[in-house]
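Lecture 7 notes: from sequence to structure.

We start with a single chain of 267 residues. Read the sequence below before looking at the structure.
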Amino acid sequence: MKYKILCSDLDGTLLSSKSDVSEYAIEQIGKIKDETKIILVSARMPSGMHYIQADLGIIDQPIICYNGALVLSGKTALASVFIPVSILKNIYILCNGLEADLGLYYHNEWYVPKTTFRVEKEIKYTKSTPTFQDTINTLNDWEERNIGAHKIMLMCTKDSADSLMPILKDQLGDVLNLYRSNDTLIEIAPKAVSKLSAIQLLLQENETLEDVIAFGDNYNDIEMLANVGLGVAVANAREEVKEITNFITLSNTKDGVAHYIAENLVN
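Now the structure, written as tokens:
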């Protein structure tokens, strides 16, 4: 089947390194991008995706940021759903006394209370720069501006993440999507949106989910991969992801997405 839309996660999926798309991926996507829409779908902020779009030559396409909480076409927001400050303050209180910093994201803004090894890694890998500001000052500013967080990156120790995750699920699981991307990192997004809901938003009248092929590796990709026409996991994906996909390609470090495109989508 010929797919009208290709959607791909970035980190651990399309990106063969921590921050960049490979020349091979650029080459293979270049062969299909004139007849197939290429939509990047990520937990990243816009600035962490725009340079990849430019490398791939697809800046005319929309992007799905923050796991679907922000959908952009150029500078126009097609969808924007954020976590209100009242909930953010609740999370801030729950973190008091624990080793846990809130990385707060709204549109192309990123705020952290201080620099850490985790923050420096994020700066390096996403080529984006945060504003260093006390969290309560950020929350008070956002309250005045009547905005909230498209994403929270809760940076913890393993022990603090172990303590916080069940509390967050119990108290806020009905309004927030919470997933632990590693032992020390909890990513939080609005419950009302997902990568799948964002893809559905972008479908044109003559398009359905059956027209979509998608690639991913992590928990936040499961709904997307399970509901599109063809879901493809990279070999390094979590086992739960592999179990629900139609196909498993090579790992991201071996250019699994580009390899699949070359073998199956290029005429």
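The chain has a mean pLDDT of 95. Keep this in mind for problem set 3.
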